[in-house]
Amino acid sequence: MEDLDKILSEVVRKTVKETLETIMNTERDIFIEKNDGTKNGTYRRTLNTKYGFIDDLRVPRDREGNFKTMVFEPYRRSLDIEDLILALYSNGISTRRISMILDEIFHGRYSKSTISKITDIVKEEIDEWQSRKLKERYFAIYIDALFLNLRRNTVEKEALHIALGIDVEGKKEILGFWINPSESSNSWELIINDLKERGIKEVLLFIADGLSGIQETIKKYYPRADFQSCIIHAERNLLSKVRAGDKDIIGREMKRIFDASSEEEARKRFNEFKETWNNRYPKAIYNMETRLDLLLTYYKYPEPIRKVIRSTNMIERLNKEIRRRIKIIDSLPGEESARKIIYLRIIEENDKFSGRTILGFNICKDDIMRTFDMRYP
User: Fold this and answer.
1) What's the whole-model pTM score?
2) Backbone CA torsion sign across 240, 243, 244, 248
3) Per-residue pLDDT tens digits for 132-149
């Protein structure tokens, strides 16, 4: 009987090992496809589970060293099955699929309903996190939306809205996320109001793309805040309206505008740009000119911080990570499932942000605080 128990234990251990390796290899393949990377074999590590000690787990890696599996935290040496279920779920694997995987290992111990109960432990956390009190002051708040396939009887694309703040210490923090059927000024108004009700009183700058009406919505709740329209979106929008043969030179000239050392120089370069291209693309140039004040807002702030605040790149990197996480499923099975997956990813990111100050902030922190004191006496 003892020999039989040892054999069964070894079978389970090997099955757990193989399952983990399969999941991690799938993760790496998706990561490489998304980031144009290259495989670089595996390395061995140990892992202690409730179902046996694994001393030869093969963890895949990429040549650039950027891939990190979400199955376990780096350097963690033990993993409970409940941790594994949450890790799989946060990677976008449905409860039904997790149940099928674990059923092959544990022969029915974890049903679909049991797994749902395990993942439900984050529901209360989400509600508490989404309603938590925020700091009174933020130097900047980035707002953006991405679209995901969500099932509500039928599958349709819905907007995931995200707000990311930079506090007065230069630390990033994801303030919240909201799922709405579409992105509109009305949905953003509800979100901006939510941020205000949760305690944010003073903001120097909001950064967003060119969504119509968004700056008016922000002014309604934060009349003293500046608005920066993303220069990357502006460049892409203009380039989409010019001929292929002109794209390279126009792209270079636009970068010269936004890389100018001062707002005065930027406007001078824009006028030269307009004089060169207005006859050929009058509507595109006109559209950019009408938004020029919003595109050059970043010149009000110290030079070391300008590249960080002139586009929505910071929040779009977060969006990219979320897209990567949900890529492995065609559609999210419902809003609650979507909220759990996104929340698990976002708290990981906030943990990473907690000890980091954004580039250039410390150099100009005193200037930024003086601006706060002048604008909000």
Assistant:
1) 0.72
2) negative
3) 999 999 999 999 988 887
